Amino acid sequence: MNKSFEDEFLEVQIQIISLCIEFAENRADKIYAYGSIEEHSLSFNAFFNIDGKIKTTNQIVTDTDAIWDFLDLGQSDLEKFNPICTRYGKPVPTELKMIYDCKSGTMDAKYKYESICSAKTGVDASEIFMEWLDLEKIKQHCEKVNQILRLDDRVAKSAKKIMDVMVQIQSCDTIDELPDVDWTSMVRCFVDETTDYQNPALFEIDKIRNLSAGLKGKL
Fold first, then answer.
1. Nearest to 21 by CA among 9, 12, 10, 33
2. 103 has pLDDT over 70
3. Do residues 186 and 158 touch, judged by C-beta distance below 8 A?
4. Contact 54/136 with Cβ under 8 angstroms?
5. Domain with CATH 3.30.500.20 in the chain
């Protein structure tokens, strides 16, 4: 059977995900693989959700040689996109972000085709990767907030507002989509209404606030 462009393009993505699964020794619940393919540069990296925690490569293995081997192999896989796209007359993506759910076997991939990381843009691939890492950490904290508040029988109006904001943040794909939130006012309304100063959701919100402030400062 003759392969199509879609078949060959998908095969490379599967190879990248398989590489990540092997690196994490089948312990990952989710895999986040990043690739940057620019005219004069190539970059690959990944992070993982293991037991509900976001972990980077150096938090999974301590052997730096193993990490570099993993990154080199990922870059080698990225190089395969160019000849495939060229052969079919398709544009080569400049950026790939792949999220693979190891439990369901489903993958969500997003591509960009404009120049992202170059001397002209002044943006480095490592910056984009770290921003994505922090954004996914924020989303994870958002999910924890909603899990906590869903169990609150009081169903305070302020809690519903917080949950709506959490859902809005979870829908963001990039840091510039993050909403401007008055965290102090939101927390004060919740505490005034519930008199619950020690609710664990507040500690998660504080983590979201700090991570968001760091990302917003880069815009």
1. 33
2. yes
3. yes
4. yes
5. 5-123
| Residue 20 DSSP label | H
Helix (H, G, I), strand (E, B) or coil at 181: coil
Cβ–Cβ under 8 Å, residues 137 and 129: no
For residues 81 and 13, give the distance between their C-alpha atoms in angstroms, rounded to a whole number: 9
pTM of the model: 0.91
Cα 41 from Cα 34, distance rounded (Å): 14
Structure tokens at 125: 């691939």
Amino acid at 118: S
Q: Which of 21-35, 73-87, 186-200 shows the lowest per-residue confidence on average (mean pLDDT)?
A: 186-200
Give the position of tokens 């190089």: 79
pLDDT digit string, tens, across residues 12-65: 999 999 999 999 999 999 999 999 999 888 999 999 999 999 999 999 999 999
Which tokens sit at 197?
Answer: 């100063």
Chain position carrying tokens 């996914």: 136
* Residue 6 to residue 84: CA distance in whole angstroms: 10
Would you say the C-alpha torsion 110, 116, 118, 124 has a positive or negative sign?
A: negative
Q: Which CATH architecture has domain 5-123?
A: 2-Layer Sandwich (3.30)
Give the DSSP H/E element, type plus range, for residue 109: strand 106-112
- C-alpha R_g of the chain: 20
